[in-house]
Amino acid sequence: MKTVYNFSAGPAVLPKEVLQEAANEMLDYKGSQMSVMEMSHRSKVYEGILNEAKADLKELLSIPDNYKILFLQGGASTQFAMIPMNLMKNHEADYIVTGQWAKKAAQEGQLYGKANVIASSEDKTFSYIPDLDNLAFSKNADYVYICENNTIYGTKYSTLPDTKGIPLISDISSCFLSEPMDVTKYGMLFGGAQKNIGPAGVTIAIIREDLLGDEVFEGTPTMLRYDTHVKADSLYNTPPAYGIYICGLVFKWIKSQGGLEGMKKMNEEKAGILYDFLDSSHMFKGTARKQDRSLMNVCFITGDEKLDKKFVEEAKEEGFENLKGHRSVGGMRASIYNAMPKEGVEALIKFMKKFEEENL
Ligand code: PMP
């Protein structure tokens, strides 16, 4: 049987060890004679799973005590609305638009107040991160919003904007736990789990306590209020219980691999060899501006759409799955999240070299 490497942008590859452990525990979680899927979310056993997941995430990211960790549902997209509903107290916020996801967040923000687009890279198909040195923040902005890793275009902020004290909110869906980060620089971080953390259905939000309050946009549903979930410790209603369990196993796996420093080292190695190959190739070309390249999503083209299509098809036949770029930009994208082994990237490069020789 040929080895399959899954380069999907999300849902995405998970560590084999985690899937094996989940399989081992599928019918009987630690002697409970129940699957985690079958357990009451109010049971002692499940409470342990949730608390341990939270504690491990706190440890991995060194989350200070004045930040709340919430396990939510509705995907990152629901956060596009929850953020303004809960945090746009002055009905104004600034957005830096570096791709479709940030753009969608800004459009959603506009439903609740003034969502100012203070910088954008749309002029060049979001292939770069705009200049962050001369941003004009709005006087009344409640927050500045960014999407830190742009899944579709393969760009990532290498530095954060200095927001001069305005809380920074960052969508980290596609770079969650890929390297260490300083949580204290943010008012809020959030992301869907389905790329680096676990299965789809779990959204994690990390919010600085002082941003939370009773005052929310009029008519905000109870389920869409952060304080509802803070007060109930992510157990206001039935949480995505099984998904959180898998996230917990992934947190333990990351700890066993040297934590976020270990992830960064591996991710830099993997992305490094792939970008080096792209830079030396006479056929393939990276599409993101060099200084803004993502470690997680590597986007490239041949410059010929027919050849791109041929490449994706032949790659699939060889076991390299999901290399087609996002439908809005075309080309190719290799998502090489934490759980993609280095062998997978090496095998892909070998295949690309062969394709280049045969088709140039
Ligand atoms: N933000 C980013 C950076 C994403 O990559 C995605 C999904 N690919 C989303 C938000 C939307 O996430 P969801 O599908 O969980 O709503």
UniProtKB/TrEMBL annotation:
Residues at which pyridoxal 5'-phosphate binds: 76-77, 101, 151, 171, 194, 237-238
Entry EC number(s): 2.6.1.52
Cofactor: pyridoxal 5'-phosphate
Principal place of residence: cytoplasm
SUPFAM superfamilies: PLP-dependent transferases (SSF53383)
Coiled coil: none
Pathway: Amino-acid biosynthesis; L-serine biosynthesis; L-serine from 3-phospho-D-glycerate: step 2/3
Pfam families from the UniProt entry: Aminotran_5
Catalyzed chemical reaction(s): O-phospho-L-serine + 2-oxoglutarate = 3-phosphooxypyruvate + L-glutamate; 4-(phosphooxy)-L-threonine + 2-oxoglutarate = (R)-3-hydroxy-2-oxo-4-phosphooxybutanoate + L-glutamate
Residues of the Aminotransferase class V domain: 4-348
Cofactor comment text: Binds 1 pyridoxal phosphate per subunit.
PANTHER family membership: PHOSPHOSERINE AMINOTRANSFERASE
Function, as annotated: Catalyzes the reversible conversion of 3-phosphohydroxypyruvate to phosphoserine and of 3-hydroxy-2-oxo-4-phosphonooxybutanoate to phosphohydroxythreonine.
Assembly notes: Homodimer.
Family named by the database record: Belongs to the class-V pyridoxal-phosphate-dependent aminotransferase family. SerC subfamily.
Protein name: Phosphoserine aminotransferase
Native source species: Aequitasia blattaphilus
